[in-house]
Amino acid sequence: MTVIDHVRSPKPTAFVLAGGGSFGAIQVGMMHSLAKHGITADLVVGSSVGAINGAYYAGDPTLKGVLGLEAIWRGLRRHDVFPITWRTMLGFLWRRDFLIPHDGIRKLIDDHLPYRNLEDAKLPVYIVATDIISGDSVVISEGSASDAIVASTAIPGAFTPVRYHDRYLADGAISSNTPVRVAVKQGAKRLIVLPTGHACAVTDPPVGAVANALHALTLLIARQLVAELEGLDPEIEYFVVPPLCPLVGSPYDFSRTEDHIERAVGSTDAWLAQSGLEQQGRIPHEARPHSH
Predict the structure, then answer these.
(1) Helix H segments across the chain?
(2) Cα angle for residues 13, 16, 22 (degrees, 5° grid)
(3) Coil, helix or strand at residue 202
(4) Which of 207, 144, 188 is closest to 14 using CA atoms?
(5) pLDDT tens for residues 190-249?
(6) Are the CB atoms for 125 and 53 separated by under 8 Å?
(7) Is 171 a catalytic residue?
């Protein structure tokens, strides 16, 4: 069976995008390859940085749209996403609460996302956040896209929770790291999972509070992804695009973006050429917790 047969699958297909900080660039490379081969989704579900990538893809689910997202990522610097300054540091020391304002993420969304409300996207898009009081997953598919994405990316301890209606929301990765069950609940019968992987080849922990928090989240995502996929109903088809391995660096480091994108395009091309979309229900070694 060729790739084009999979493109025409009659089953509703979801792209499911995990969190992972700057490793979100890997998802962009994966989407580049998938779009180049004509593989598309009927709906998109994203958590944390996967919410950002998923929302952009839902706004223009074409290779041209992915290339636009790629250009944005190539221009990103850590300060654009995590604007830590002496003023924010002094504010943190004075209030002893949260370190980073939401301004960077919100500006990124407002400047580049081609729609304002989630229901205006070209594909149905579901953003996953966490109710920081109850721990429940909260799925947002209508209303302000920037509010939803800011909530889904609010790493506890670094960003303040976002007041959304009557709830306080934080990073979606806490409750639903790779939101496969959310995709199924929204009607998907076929899942193409885009994990970001984890820094499997580092020898020392990253330096800094935010870097360590993001590193811990990526480890959690890798472990819980396996459990969530293996617990799915057998009628649900799923395919996991292999993340990069070996992967060095920190999900707080945006200096490796270009390399992450290029490697992910190449590795996804190779996966497709090796009939990756014929190997239903297989979790690749690279997506499982491992070390070197």
Answers:
(1) 3-7, 24-36, 49-59, 63-74, 78-81, 86-95, 103-112, 145-152, 180-185, 209-230, 257-273
(2) 150
(3) coil
(4) 188
(5) 999 999 998 888 888 877 777 787 787 788 777 788 888 988 999 999 999 999 999 988
(6) no
(7) yes
199 contacts: CB under 8 Å, gap ≥ 6? 206, 215, 218, 247, 248, 249, 250, 251
One-letter amino acid at 28 equals V
* Count of all residues that appear for the chain in the document: 292
Q: What is the pTM of this model?
A: 0.89
Number of H helices, E strands in the chain: 11, 8
Q: Is 48 a catalytic site residue? A: yes
Q: Which of 22, 33, 47, 48 is catalytic?
A: 48
**140 three-class SS:** strand
Contact status, residue 261 vs residue 28, Cβ threshold 8 Å = yes
| Beta pairing partners, 129 | 138
270: three-class secondary structure by DSSP: helix
Cα distance between residue 255 and residue 37, in whole Å: 28
Q: What is the pLDDT of residues 58-99, one digit of tens each?
A: 999 999 999 999 999 999 987 777 665 545 444 444 454 556
Cα–Cα distances in angstroms (integers) from residue 212 to residues 155, 158, 171, 233, 251, in the given order: 11, 11, 15, 34, 9
Catalytic residue among 60, 131, 147, 171: 171
The count of other CB atoms within 10 Å of the CB of residue 18 is 34
DSSP H or E run through 131: strand 125-131
> Taking every pair of C-alpha atoms in the chain, what is the biggest distance, in angstroms?
62
